[in-house]
């Protein structure tokens, strides 16, 4: 090893050691080149193989289009079905997030997290290759499909989806080689496989989280309706912000409706969290359940999920449970909930500039993206003022 490489290696050890002790053996270097990651992880795909797999990125193979650019379905020579994300050429913002996704997913492997098979860098082309997840995203089925398709997502499947996402998130927070905060947990970022197993996807905005720090101060990014109030107000990012988004997702899955705030429209749907909390306080918790699955729902499970959704969305981040507590609650039977449930936070809403979308997008999410300036509706401030009111747990 040359002298300068020795110095580099010494400095790397010196700076990354503390994080290694807590989170795992190595912290990826933010400056690391795309191709170096691919080579190190032995996950390089030849461009030609991806051209052949997607029939030259044929429009017939296009699955959709996100903030990075189009995603294509393909079949590799060895028979594996893949989804190929192709970074659009004209997005600077996208490039950073794309590399972020590649870097963070490189060593992540869990049944409930979408599996990154590899990368391809070819001239100015950058592509990510994932396992293909055939059953669409959760939001398409839950909010956009017809009643028949929505009912296919019966109670058992919904419960398993909630448990699966909880396990995936627990893995990211506690068990993955690097501690990761996803920052954009939402129904649109949960893909379902042919056995309805949920896979957390879209790591473009995810952040490494040094465990020895209580929080990370960061530029606010995420999706309206899912973002924790303290995060959107102060940019204070902790695992509790993911827990808040998870709680919103749980209530959406149980209720079969979006926690959607239509900013600026004459009609504002009642906020799902407020409504769920009110029903819970009135002892009418079961009325929250999506009528399409009410007949198949196991009442104790449904009540537990609603309680967990409300616990996770409490306005005080300190009162939200950790993902390990959530997984324990969901896995244990019968369960006794010791925690008191307090008033939910109003999920952040913000004015935003969408992440660069080169063509029209297939995503119907109301928001989904980064570079935004935040504004707070008076409802947010009011709710914080009245947040000290707490309620005792009951069914
Ligand atoms: N591994 C995969 N298997 C099957 N379909 C996928 C896979 N990854 C993405 N898709 C589909 O490709 C489309 C685009 O996904 P992508 O993650 O790029 O963007 P998005 O989540 O729709 O939007 P945004 O990037 O703004 O969050 C979506 O319809 C998604 O369901």
TrEMBL record:
It comes from the Eukaryota. This is Uncharacterized protein. It comes from Melastoma candidum.
């Amino acid at each position: 090893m040359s002298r300068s490489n020795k110095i580099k290696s010494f400095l790397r050890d010196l700076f990354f050691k503390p994080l290694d002790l807590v989170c795992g053996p190595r912290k990826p270097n933010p400056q690391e080149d795309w191709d170096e990651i691919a080579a190190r992880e032995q996950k390089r795909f030849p461009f030609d193989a991806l051209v052949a797999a997607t029939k030259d990125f044929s429009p017939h193979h296009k699955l959709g289009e996100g903030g990075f650019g189009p995603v294509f379905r393909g079949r590799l020579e060895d028979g594996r079905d893949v989804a190929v994300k192709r970074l659009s050429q004209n997005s600077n913002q996208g490039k950073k997030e794309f590399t972020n996704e590649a870097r963070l997913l490189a060593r992540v492997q869990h049944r409930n997290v979408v599996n990154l098979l590899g990368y391809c860098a070819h001239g100015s082309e950058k592509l990510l290759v994932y396992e293909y997840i055939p059953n669409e995203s959760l939001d398409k089925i839950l909010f956009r499909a017809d009643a028949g398709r929505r009912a296919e997502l019966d109670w058992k499947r919904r419960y398993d989806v909630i448990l699966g996402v909880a396990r995936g998130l627990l893995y990211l927070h506690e068990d993955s080689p690097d501690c990761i905060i996803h920052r954009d947990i939402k129904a649109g970022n949960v893909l379902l496989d042919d056995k309805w197993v949920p896979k957390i996807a879209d790591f473009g905005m995810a952040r490494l989280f040094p465990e020895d720090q209580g929080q990370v101060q960061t530029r606010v990014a995420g999706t309206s309706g899912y973002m924790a109030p303290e995060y959107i107000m102060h940019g204070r990012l902790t695992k509790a912000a993911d827990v808040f988004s998870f709680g919103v997702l749980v209530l959406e899955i149980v209720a079969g409706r979006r926690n959607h705030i239509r900013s600026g429209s004459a009609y504002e749907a009642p906020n799902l969290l407020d409504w769920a909390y009110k029903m819970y306080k009135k002892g009418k918790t079961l009325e929250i359940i999506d009528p399409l699955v009410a007949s198949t729902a196991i009442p104790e499970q449904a009540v537990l999920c609603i309680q967990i959704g409300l616990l996770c969305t409490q306005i005080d981040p300190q009162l939200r449970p950790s993902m390990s507590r959530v997984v324990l609650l969901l896995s244990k039977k019968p369960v006794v909930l010791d925690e008191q449930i307090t008033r939910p936070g109003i999920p952040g809403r913000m004015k935003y500039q969408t992440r660069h979308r080169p063509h029209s997008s297939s995503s119907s999410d109301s928001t989904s993206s980064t570079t935004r300036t935040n504004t707070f509706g008076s409802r947010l401030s009011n709710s914080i003022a009245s947040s000290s009111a707490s309620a005792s747990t009951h069914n």
